[in-house]
Design goal:
Blueprint: E1 21-32, E2 35-43, E3 53-59, E4 66-72, E5 79-87, E6 102-112, E7 115-126, E8 134-135, E9 151-158, E10 163-170, E11 173-179, E12 186-191, E13 202-212, E14 215-227, E15 238-246, E16 251-253, E17 270-274, E18 285-290, E19 305-306, E20 313-320, E21 323-330, E22 338-348, H1 349-356, E23 364-370, E24 376-382, E25 388-393, E26 398-402, E27 418-422, H2 428-435, E28 454-461, E29 464-469, E30 474-479, E31 488-493, E32 499-508
Parallel strand pairs: 1-19
Antiparallel strand pairs: 1-2, 2-3, 3-4, 5-6, 6-7, 7-8, 9-10, 10-11, 11-12, 13-14, 14-15, 15-16, 17-18, 18-20, 20-21, 22-32, 23-28, 23-32, 24-25, 24-31, 25-26, 26-27, 28-29, 29-30
């Protein structure tokens, strides 16, 4: 579908996007001296993928972003691919005799005419809170001969063994290295053969420890691995996760990891990683992903810029139907940017439709709690010729996003599509049945239904929809490109008399607006938890 609009403004109100030109993977995410740093893959001379630099932005509240000058530029070792950043608190590198500073660990990508591409790992350091960077004269610090895909280092301090750990994407596996000083690295082990999805090249790994159900005495390690687009199917690029144990050298997956588990069931959350060096008193694992898909990322219909990040999310590991499940909820900082618009309780569908009719919104949160067993949904960013449907199908027990009429879509033939995900994780008995081949591909895997009201949190911005089911067990993220006047919303359901226990709509606005590098400013509730028992 093609929408003819005079001045479509697809820049999000509360999602980070670059002031100009191209952006993809989040890089170097680190918290230091009161600031959240977000570096990102950036082509500062065009709006499609090109020679990679590290762009840079900072925030103190995860909503209002200040874009800074390009942080790291290409050199004789190659362009600057993805990587991470850490605080060198104890001066293990020797770069910071006067107090802690920032270290960036990144992939140098070198293309040579008539010769194989080379990817190596390098360092840069900053002594002024990330405003300027010096590359280490001993770069590169890590090579691996014969591996054309050897990239995206995620580094963290492993307190149990008192050393730095690096996890790297290496084709169809990830590899673990260790170091006392970030300069000298020793190989530990590989992970990935015979487990997980191998539909595309493995990229942008992350590894971190989380308490199970908030119990610090019982923790597991979570490994994120993004899967590149291989050109087949409709999904394109996406991210899977594994759970298990890590001893400083080897990752040992648990039984639940025998199933492929996706972090996000939408089309547009890729290459996401978490912030390092969060204060101990905060204790959260915060995550953000690139809100696009390699299937069409170079073609999305934005003007002068391309690429945005997801809403920052809090990751937790919680037991759902006997399975340790990675949960994600919008970062609590978003609540400070909310302005109440509508609050309803015990309202019928017909009454809700009447209350929604006069509203005009393009950036908002919709939180709803409905009686169990009822199908319902909302048509968002609705205009004369477009609208995106987000809803719950009780018969199929599925959350879905339907963007078949969402707006501009002719840049990719399968963009206008409906996709869905089951809203319950497999029960332990279902997992056992699957392992014993007692369920067929046709009948699918048995799912443990969780008896509860249906709770949804939906975040809408000028060109995106992010839907969270229940208490965060399922997330779906999609880009949309509606006509500029598409600011209405409506509700639909099984019958006019069906009851919504609560409906809350809140406008979301940044306090100061998006602040790009040149200084110009452009405009840029908690659902009742469901039962987690068997």
């Amino acid at each position: 579908m093609t929408i003819q609009a005079t001045t479509p403004d697809y820049r999000g109100i509360y999602h980070f996007s670059p002031a100009k030109h191209w952006m993809n993977d989040p890089n170097g995410m680190v918290f230091f001296d009161g600031e959240y740093h977000l570096f990102f893959q950036h082509h500062p001379f065009g709006t499609t993928w090109g020679p990679m630099h590290w762009g840079h932005a900072v925030t103190r509240n995860l909503i209002d972003w200040e874009e800074l000058p390009v942080a790291i530029e290409p050199d004789e070792h190659g362009t600057i691919f993805s990587g991470s950043a850490v605080v060198d608190t104890h001066n293990t590198t020797g770069f910071f005799p006067d107090g802690p500073g920032l270290i960036a660990i990144f992939t140098h990508h070198l293309e040579r005419p008539g010769m194989p591409t080379v990817q190596t790992q390098s360092l840069a350091y900053s002594r002024d809170k990330g405003r300027t960077w010096n590359k280490y004269e001993g770069n590169p610090v890590l090579k691996r001969e014969g591996w054309p895909d050897f990239r995206d280092p995620k580094v963290f301090w492993h307190e149990q063994t008192r050393q730095w750990i690096m996890v790297l994407a290496c084709g169809q596996i990830v590899s673990f290295y260790r170091s006392p000083n970030l300069k000298n690295w020793t190989f530990g082990s590989d992970f990935g053969d015979g487990i997980g999805s191998h539909d595309g090249v493995w990229e942008c790994p992350d590894l971190f420890e989380l308490p199970v159900d908030g119990d610090p005495s019982n923790s597991r390690w979570v490994l994120l691995v993004s899967i590149g687009d291989n050109g087949s199917g409709k999904e394109g690029s996406r991210t899977q996760y594994f759970t298990g144990d890590f001893d400083g050298e080897t990752f040992m997956p648990d039984e639940a990891s025998s199933e492929v588990r996706w972090l996000d069931h939408g089309r547009d959350n890729y290459a996401g990683v978490s912030w390092s060096d969060m204060p101990a008193e905060d204790g959260r694992r915060l995550y953000v992903g690139w809100m696009s898909n390699w299937r069409y990322a170079n073609s999305t219909p934005t003007d002068g810029w391309r690429g945005a990040m997801t809403l920052p999310r809090e990751l937790t590991l919680e037991t759902v139907c006997g399975v340790e499940t990675l949960m994600q909820r919008p970062a609590r900082e978003v609540e400070a940017a909310r302005v109440p618009v509508l609050e309803l309780q015990n309202v019928s569908l017909s009454e809700l439709r009447g209350a929604l009719k006069p509203l005009r919104l393009d950036a908002f949160e919709l939180e709803v709690q409905a009686q169990a067993g009822q199908s319902f949904g909302f048509r968002l960013r609705e205009g004369e010729r477009c609208g995106t449907s987000v809803g719950f199908d009780a018969d199929a027990n599925e959350l879905y996003i339907d963007r078949s009429e969402a707006g501009e879509s002719d840049f990719y033939e399968h963009f206008a599509d409906r996709h869905s995900a089951r809203t319950s994780v497999p029960s332990a008995s279902a997992q056992k049945a699957r392992s014993e081949s007692e369920t067929s591909e046709a009948s699918g895997q048995a799912y443990a239904a969780v008896a509860s009201d249906t709770c949804l949190r939906i975040f809408v911005d000028r060109s995106s929809v992010e839907a969270f089911e229940g208490d965060g067990r399922l997330a779906m993220t999609d880009l949309i490109f509606p006509e500029p006047e598409a600011d209405r919303l409506s509700a639909f359901g099984d019958e006019d008399g069906m009851v919504f226990r609560t409906v809350a709509i809140r406008k979301i606005q940044s306090s100061a607006g998006f602040v790009p590098e040149n200084g110009a400013v452009s405009e840029t509730a908690n659902c009742k938890p469901v039962s987690k028992e068997d």
